[in-house]
Input
Amino acid sequence: METIVCDWSSIHRHGSLWYDHLKLRKAAFVDKQGWDVPHTAEAEWDQYDTPLTQYVITHDAGRVLSASRVFPCSYSGPNFSYMIRDATLGRLPNIPQHIIPVACTSTKSFEATRFTVDLTLARRLRTDALKENAIRLMEHCAGKGANHVFALMPPGFVAWLRRAGLDARAAGPVVTNSQGEAFCVIECRRPFFKGADLALSA
Output
């Protein structure tokens, strides 16, 4: 199991991993959870897939096991910024506006979204793949000088991330979307890891 980080400028260096992770997202978010998001018969994407986005993809010999993406909280364009802030501005009607008191716009803050895993994997391997991906994402953000990483996830992931060794906390109330799914803003702060020995070995 290994993890790569790529963006639009380096997708070509990693074979089909980037496109395969879009397939994984479609299977998880469209086929299983029924999200109303852009997709083809194979792949899912949205407005936050941009040249600024970095993709964290965990694979085993070229088979994508889990994936996520990272987007800068400092970006603010004419139609969108980042998911959590856009929700607070009323741009995402499926997400309540009061998910966080103030949406961060610091250049040292990032948002992590689209955490997904291959649903056909055995349960233990799914857990291991998600843990590997979350830790590598946080290591990547730390290497870019981040002080904060935010994510919009089910509230149970606060405890899950802490068990994985990450310094996670809820940064807003638990809310539900129009499909009845519960989630909250989760924040991880530098130094991100509760102990250096908890990070996976390279």
